[in-house]
Amino acid sequence: MRQAAHDLNTDPQIEAPAQEAAGDEPFVPPVPRISIQAFCETETTANMLDVASQDRRLGRAHVTVQMGGVDAAVAFYGDAPTPNLIIIESVLQGDAMGADLGRLAEVCDAGTKVVVIGHINDVLLYRELMRSGVSEYLVAPLEPLSVINSIGGLYQDPDSEPLGRVIAFVGAKGGVGSSTIAHNTAWSIAEGYSSDVIIADLDLPFGTAALDFNQDPPQGIAEAVLSPERLDDVLLDRLLAKCSKHVSLFAAPSSLDQVYDIDPQAFDSVLNVARQNVPNIVLDVPHIWTGWARSVLLAADDIVVTAVPDLANLRNAKNLLDLLKQNRPNDRKPYILLNQVGMPKRPEISAKDFSEALDLDPVATIQFDPQLFGDAANNGQMIQEMSAGSKPAETFNHLAALVTGHEQSTVAKKSILGPILEKLKRKKG
Description:
Elements: E1 35-40, H1 43-53, E2 62-67, H2 69-77, E3 85-89, H3 94-105, E4 113-118, H4 123-132, E5 136-139, H5 144-154, E6 165-171, H6 178-193, E7 197-201, H7 209-212, H8 221-226, H9 233-239, E8 241-242, E9 247-250, H10 264-275, E10 280-285, H11 291-299, E11 302-307, H12 311-327, E12 335-341, H13 351-358, E13 364-367, H14 370-379, H15 383-386, H16 391-403, H17 418-428
Parallel strand pairs: 1-2, 1-3, 3-4, 4-5, 6-10, 6-11, 7-9, 7-10, 11-12, 12-13
Antiparallel strand pairs: 8-9
């Protein structure tokens, strides 16, 4: 077993990985395309690993889970090559566990990593296992996300930049302004945090990102997804249109010369290259339901659903949230944003009723303002450029903070001191 770089715990006990509740988890990057085999001794751990294996972050890894612990692993690898990673559960203690794992070391190939799940919180045992070449020791009981995070840490180069975060924006219905929300939030991320952002316009025949940023690039995302095997860092730079110091655009061709029946794996390949180059990738996902659109949404790190307050949007948003909850049980809940609120003469569902029906509070509401948004669209500018102090601009800044992890609350908190503090700020200015 190969010794993995690891900081030894100097506390009297090993701190088990934080058990994050679904919906409040930290950003955990995907695990690379590796083979993982687990040998468990308890049904609880086996069931937990089965759940973890279904998580999107392990989507590229090949995971098998079986019972039997060290005995089963030693018997299995006696005449079979070992995988990239072995997960072993042991209920033994101290020297007995070390001796048992020694039998496993005799049949392990060079380069195989071993994670041990034990039931004893003992720092001396931990240090001994690290010295013997175990890559990680985890204390049961565990949550799936804790295990995924530990696995990801073993395969992340500490000297490399972290993988970029993918944020998908989708409308509950066509024409609700999801693209506008996506583009303005991306701009807020770039300008507010001086952080590089790629905006990928996935509406290949009808995308508007190039118009919104006043760009007319000859190439874009179609060249990447139609030939994903050709995409590398050099070609990525050629295909991106530079909109500002920190914003680059993967523009859609917006052409009807061909149909775009894309293989979902093509988008996966393109996003993997993009992740290695920038910290933030904003996906402008069209309101369609194809294999690749579903795949892109399920694989995103965060999702923002834009809706207007009517019945069709409520129904669609509910269906979408149910699907995401079922397929992404370990992920943070999507953010819901209500747009175009207060349109004259249009019957609307109140924000309170909307949130009660979805069992999810909207992260923000944006009032109907055709003048501001229309002028910005016609000028090829963002709302922050047109009116930096406006309510919509503040909303985009707030949303940018949420999806990048700079703000933990999913709903803007109001204080009774807010108006007073705001006056003091204005006077000071």
